[in-house]
Amino acid sequence: MLLLLFQIAGDRFGLDADSVIEITPLVELRVLPRAPAHVAGLMNYRGAVTPVVDLTALLTGKSAQKYLSTRIVIVLFPGHDGKDHPLGLMAEHVTETRSFKPGDLRPAGVDVKAAPFLGEVALDPRGGGMIQRVRVDAILPEEVRKTLFALIAKAENA
After folding, report:
1. pLDDT digits over 22-49, tens only?
2. Helices (H), the chain
3. Would you give the distance in Å from CA 37 to the centre of its chain?
4. Which of 3, 43, 145, 150 has the fewest Cβ atoms within 10 angstroms?
5. Is 157 strand, coil or helix?
6. Collapsing DSSP states into helix, strand and coil, what is residue 57?
7. Cβ-Cβ contacts under 8 Å for 52 (sequence gap 6 or more)
8. pTM confidence score
9. Interval 76-85 mean pLDDT
């Protein structure tokens, strides 16, 4: 399994590379007033209105820093309508990938109900501690998934 690595507050995390469509630089986002703090805004991704989630804000409550290595990772996210939709994930220090063998990723041993997207952990084979997998399909709560992509579909069909 190949993971795209990034950092949040000094800890390393990984996204399944299979779920990544593209990695883009930071772009100007359309801010959504009164949206949850982890919803960074909307971007135009190849002509599609695409929501962007700030992974740092999702985990720590603080916005991602705008480093040269801060990127928006475009993934396909399963919407409530049964279709996959592009979703931007803003992450800091997106600089490398790491390959893991089956069995390298193990349960964290703690089920954090408030963060169901946090998955298994693995020891970095190159040293440097642990890497925790982030499950793309569980990043957005069900109620957000229902409304967010329904509103985008409605706007695109208008």
Report:
1. 999 999 999 888 888 888 999 999 998 8
2. 55-60, 142-157
3. 14
4. 150
5. helix
6. helix
7. 29, 39, 40, 41, 42, 43, 72, 87, 88, 89, 90
8. 0.88
9. 80
Q: Is the dihedral of CA 42, 139, 64, 45 positive or negative?
A: negative
d(CA 129, CA 86): 31
Residue listed under structure tokens 């779920």: 19
What is the model's pLDDT at position 4? 96
Which of these, 70, 44, 66, 40, lies nearest to 54 by C-alpha position?
A: 40
